[in-house]
């Protein structure tokens, strides 16, 4: 039996208006609870931020949007339809993979089109392997969805069942790198289907093969673009929640949770106002800073961070895709530089500290390629994400990197790399710009200076990851967001909001 919040749960305060908090609020309101959402920022979105300037709309958070059915499910809790609130455009080319040898591969949502691209670049044998691999991904995802992802877990015993046995038989607990290598001989395809391990905060040489399913969400199931940008998604969710009766308080930081006995009785805001509460949903990145008595069983390991360069440019930049993965020649070295695999680079104990990628692999998103509402005529908006070490040496990070001075230099380096890889004229056409580094992420309250939260090491996955209803702390405080079950990424945090609501509604 899954644990739930005991006692009255009529009045719920949700701390944070990010995707997790909004997902929880919609579910709770749909179940008849009186819901108030408090957010220290000026509006909804959380990590899914937005800057609008000179006709450019820059999404400063997630750039890849998958599994829109999860948002549709949250909206349905209050009787709303996704298609009435947002226009979702499926991307025919989900990614363009750009390789160091000058070749590129367009990844298509349509299997036949994708296989044709692979056959043209890598040969018929690899195209046949692709079809087998995509079928394997779909089955892995089916097994994991019900076992690890789509339900609350209190103990490892909750995993016991036929799906776990099938997952083990399919090699789900081996290494991701070896799992991919069993299917593909071409090194380019091996990279394409294992770089997603960085989304989970681990090297593919350490990640379990079960994390291959991250590729199922974007390569297997497809990528979508919400018209108006990804920031339009939390805005639509918040509007639907408000129409259903959820109260929103913006510019409202939380000072503390007021405790009486074993329960939180109210939420105290920075301005001194007290909000009475029968239950509280906390979505902050570090619950220990707000929830009395909460602590983790072990010292956390965090994902690598990134430098994110968001620009509006007065240039068409013709021939580029909506999403591009630009691989450098280096591969294993990249993960060694960014994660706790740093010892692979040789040297003493200091080798475990992260360093800047010497041959960077980058994710470049140009949503105005699909959605012209995001940029003025003749312009484009781009988000360039360059993984970097975080600030926590225990996690393979490096707190000694001086991002105050390094940030501007690294921004210049990233742009120069893109210019050399075909984005000609980018640097000289920039009109609007915003740069985030591990320091700015830390200033926003993100632990270890990373927007990717806890790494998905084996000890921080499934039932070993912090549950939505922790055993330490007040009995009526529920957690949601990237740092708890099921994990990191837009689909996962939307699910976490639902799981948190179910801890309250039963």
UniProtKB/TrEMBL annotation:
Name under which the protein is recorded: Phytoene desaturase
Annotated organism of origin: Geodermatophilus obscurus
One Pfam family this sequence matches: Amino_oxidase
Keyword terms, alphabetized: Carotenoid biosynthesis, Oxidoreductase
GO aspect biological process, one term: carotenoid biosynthetic process
Lineage, broadest ranks: Bacteria, Bacillati, Actinomycetota, Actinomycetes, Geodermatophilales
UniProt xrefs under InterPro entries: Amino_oxidase (IPR002937), Carotenoid/retinoid_OxRdtase (IPR014105), FAD/NAD-bd_sf (IPR036188)
Keyword Oxidoreductase among UniProt keywords: yes
GO molecular function: oxidoreductase activity
